[in-house]
Known about the structure:
The protein has helices at about 25-40, 140-145, 155-170, 190-200; strands at about 5-10, 45-50, 95-100, 110, 150-155, 175-185, 205. The protein is of the alpha/beta class.
Amino acid sequence: MSKALIIIDVQNDFCQGGSLATERGAEVAALISEYVENHHSDYEAIVATQDWHVDPGTHFSENPDFKDSWPVHCKAESQGAELHEDLDTDYIEAYFRKGEFEAAYSGFEGLLAPEDSVMTGEREAGAPAQDDTPKVSLDDWLAERDITDVDVVGIATDFCVKATALDAVDAGYETRVLLDLTAPVDEDALDEVSDELEDAGVTVAEVL
Length: 208
C-alpha cells in the first residue's frame, strides 16, 4: 500500500471573509495542518488542489443558485484563490489547479501547477508565474508514484471533496474521506453526502 493525502481547495474565498465562505473553513485549515504535522510520515505524497478560475462561463452568476452557479470566487492570481494562511504547506509537494474555463469540482480535473508558483500569498497578487509545466493530471501524477490509496480532506465536503473522492474510487484508488477534516457548504447535507460516498465504495472516517 502506498498512500497519498489530497487536500482540496483550502483557499481564502472558501474561508471566513471570502466570497464563498464555509462556516468551518479556517478551522479546518488549522486542523488539517495539525493532522499533517502529526501524520505526514503515513503518506508517500501530500498534494493540494486549487479552484483557479479565469472565465468559467455560467459557473459564475450574479444570481447564483448555489448548486450549479456561484458568486465569483477563486479568480486566478487573486488573493481569494491563494491557500489560507492557516494551512501549513511545508509537506505539500505538488499543487493541481482546476476550472480555468469551466466548472470543475473534482481534483482529478486539475493539472499540475507551475513549479515557481507560490501558493500561499507570498507572490504579489496578479504577478504571473512562468507556465512551462507539462500538462500532468492528478491521476497521472499519483500513478507515476505507484499510489494505491488516497485520503481526501478539505473544502467543501458536499461539492469538491465529494467529487474528488468519487473520481478517486472510480479510478481504482482505495479512498477515504476524513470527514472531520472537511468543511461543508451545507451542514444539513452531511448525512446524505456520507451515504452517497459509502454507496460508491468510499470509506468515510473521522480521525480527530
